[in-house]
Amino acid sequence: MVSYKAPLNDIRFVLYELLDYETTIAALPGYEEATRDVVDAVLDEAARFCETELLPLNGPGDAEGCTFEDGTVRTPLGFKEAYRHFIKAGWTGLACDTQYGGQGLPNVLQFVLEELIWSTNLSFGIYPGLSHAGSHALALHGSEDQKRLFLPRIVDGTWSATMCLTEPQCGTDLGLVRTRAEPKGGSTYKITGTKIFISAGEHDLTENIVHMVLARLPGAPSGTRGLSLFIVPKFLVKPDGTLGTHNRVSCSSIEQKMGIKASSTCTLNFEGAEGYLVGKPNTGMHCMFTMMNTARLAIGLQGLGLAETAYQSAVAYARERLQGRSLSGSKFPDKAADPIIVHPDVRKNLLTARAYNQGARALALWVGMAMDVAVKHPDPARGIEAEDLVALMTPIIKAFVTDYGFEATNLGLQVFGGYGYIRDSGMEQLVRDARIAQIYEGTNGLQALDLVGRKLPQDSGRLLRRFFHPVSQFIDENTGDAELQPFVLPLAKAFARLQQATLWVAQESLKDGQEAGAAACDYLRMFALVALAYMWARTAKVAVGKLAAEKESFYRAKLATANFYMTRVLPQTSGLFAAITAGARSIMDVHEEWF
Ligand SMILES: Cc1cc2nc3c(=O)[nH]c(=O)nc-3n(C[C@H](O)[C@H](O)[C@H](O)COP(=O)(O)OP(=O)(O)OC[C@H]3O[C@@H](n4cnc5c(N)ncnc54)[C@H](O)[C@@H]3O)c2cc1C
Q1: Ligand 1 mean position to 173 CA, how many Å?
Q2: 91: domain CATH number?
Q3: Who is most buried in 208, 430, 461, 467, counting CB within 10 A?
Q4: Ligand 1 pocket mutation, candidates 172, 179, 229, 438, criterion most atoms within 8 A of CB
Q5: In angstroms, what is the span from residue 320 Cα to ligand 1's centroid?
Q6: pLDDT per residue over 122-152, tens digit each?
């Protein structure tokens, strides 16, 4: 069994002390009621729900998996009841507009909720998770009628949503979508095609499932420019909102897979199903990007959630498991052996996961708050700046946090030794569950291309400046502070390297596009490591100022982890810099027949 308690101390530290939630978010018009008291109550209740309702279903859900029979999918025992409790408590509408029945709370709280859900039951979380992304896309791009008919039900969780992009011949390259949409009059279309790997495409948790489907209109341009987005409900919806007949969409199978076994992954056949156009014809990618970006950030948090559970479980195990003696002499001479937490390698594994987790949590919540500033700030210029930061950081959070999430769950398993490999420990499930997050919602390779090919060059580096400016400013303001030198100097050095690498990538990719492709993943990782260093340096600044306060050991632990990050993790940026600037030739000059 894994050990997990929602890390509320750290979450509160990040929200209130590091990112100044009360002046940054609670002061925004529309969030007046999201006071610290309200936030604290939400955090406590979310923690209780996830720890007591979701976590106990995680292992059994993995063992049982979903079952498929005659076109219907049954989720594992207990999922239906937990889902009923989940929607009754209003979790599906936490950050949704009050106009559609949501609670209208800041998006940053949705991020916190998601982390806790992913930590305790990733498979369960996928069902409402896609609904959240779907409702966001509908709220922004749907017609008034579509919003009236579909949003309240998705927000209150009685219906769920899916995201239907992938087809057998088309994954990363959505330009290859073949699903067709034929006009039937008005905004109604007949949708025909096959979508595969659709998460929550069929299940028994909700009364209806609202599929958001990418399809091509007759005569539409080829490639992604010719895609349109359609709402295709499993059950047709009458004008008064009640359910009508079964639409012509069916599930023909579910996948047997490595992890997230309690999340259904479905093949859906649309056979002239009734669908409704969202937005204008051929703007499907634009509309779907709203959904995809929300989902990409949520998936980044999946890496964090799983890594946190792995870390906590590994710490608990390392304190108990007795093997060998400390290299500096026995620490527990009265015991048969010392606990393995005395060994440098075990400690390094634990600290690596801890430093990644706490750094990534700070980074993600910073971006979550920027999403709130983007929609609520009264000064449009501040809103645009915040939106830019979110756009820049989305591929970084999606790819880096899921990459290290897999790495950290593996480190956690390693701390358990052979017991980690055995099912009962729960550790191997975390590793299996973590793996998919690097693949779906655009593989991490694709995220790196998005960063290098789209986000960096946009408007001559406008997005980039939203990150580079605050980092430069922080370094300038704090370099002279002797207590902060161990944190600010490594940040400054790595940041200078990142700037050099950015220039190199920008210049070389203008000469040869392969350079951008060859550098992309290393560049994304380097960028992320510097972003975490920025969060750790800011954390150190807060912690240094509070050492005399109560909870002293909390702040000392923060400083120790920041120190570990700067000295043992951040130096990876040197190697990444060397790899990036080595160029594409060592990759591209290798003939295909030599593989
Ligand atoms: C469990 C699960 C759940 C899923 N849920 C959904 C869902 O709800 N909705 C949905 O629509 N899809 C879903 N997917 C599909 C998922 O999004 C795709 O698998 C993913 O986008 C990759 O597509 P692909 O599998 O076709 O791989 P491919 O596109 O064939 O890619 C194969 C490899 O080539 C690389 N590659 C491809 N093109 C490029 C390029 N231009 N440059 C560099 N490298 C490239 C990729 O990074 C990857 O490593 C799910 C998949 C799984 C396994």
Answers
A1: 9
A2: 1.10.540.10
A3: 430
A4: 172
A5: 41
A6: 999 999 999 988 998 999 999 999 999 999 9
From the CB of 196, is ligand 1 less than 6 Å away? no
User: Could you tell me if 57 and 126 are in contact, meaning their C-beta atoms sit under 8 angstroms apart?
Assistant: no
The answer as to whether 369 is a domain residue is: no
205 and 118 part of one domain? no
Number of domains in the chain: 3
Does any ligand 1 atom lie closer than 6 A to the CB of residue 257?
A: yes
Contacts of 595 (CB under 8 A, 6+ apart): none
Pull the structure tokens for residue 152.
């309240």
171 lines ligand 1 (CB under 6 A): yes
Considering 288, 323, 350, which residue would you say is the last residue of a domain? 288
Judge whether 23 lies within some domain: yes
- The reply to whether 94 falls in a domain is yes
Does the structure show a pLDDT above 80 at 211?
Answer: yes
Are 117 and 235 part of one and the same domain? no
| 244-278 per-position pLDDT tens digit | 999 999 999 999 999 999 999 999 999 999 999 99
Say if residue 123 is in the same domain as residue 164. Answer: no
What is the arithmetic mean of pLDDT over 73-102? 97
The 10s digit of each residue's pLDDT in 164-201 is 999 999 999 999 999 999 999 988 999 999 999 999 99
- pTM for the model stands at 0.97
Q: Is the CB of 299 under 6 A from ligand 1?
A: no
Q: What amino acid occupies position 396? A: I
The pLDDT assigned to 325 comes to 97
Whether 147 and 139 have beta carbons less than 8 Å apart is answered as yes
Verify that 90 and 224 share a domain, yes or no. Answer: no
**pLDDT at 549 exceeding the cut of 80:** no
- Euclidean distance between CA atoms 393 and 363, whole angstroms: 9
103 and 196 assigned to the same domain = no
Of 288, 313, 334, which residue is a domain's last? Answer: 288
Is ligand 1 within 6 A of the CB of residue 249?
no
Which domain CATH number covers 279? Answer: 2.40.110.20
Residue 458 lies in domain = 452-595
Distance of CA 374 from the midpoint of ligand 1 (Å): 30
308-343 residue pLDDT tens: 999 999 999 999 999 999 999 999 999 999 999 999
For ligand 1, the distance from its centroid to the CA atom of residue 296, given in whole angstroms, is 13
Shared domain check, 91 and 15: yes
Q: Answer whether residue 222 is part of any domain.
A: yes
- Give catalytic status of residue 441 as yes or no: yes
In sequence order, what are the residues at sequence separation of 6 or more whose Cβ sits closer than 8 angstroms to the Cβ of residue 561? 351, 354, 355, 358, 536
Residue 275 phi, psi (nearest 5): -135, 160
**Contact 127 CB / ligand 1 (< 6 Å):** no
Q: How much is the CA Rg of the chain, to the nearest whole Å? A: 24
* 40-53 CB burial, b ≥16 within 10 A, e <16: eebbeebbebbbeb
Q: Is beta strand 208-216 parallel, antiparallel or unpaired with respect to 227-233?
A: antiparallel
User: Does 213 share its domain with 169?
Assistant: yes
- If asked whether residues 114 and 222 sit together in one domain, one would say no
- Cα–Cα distance measured from residue 452 to residue 502, given in angstroms and rounded to the nearest whole number: 9
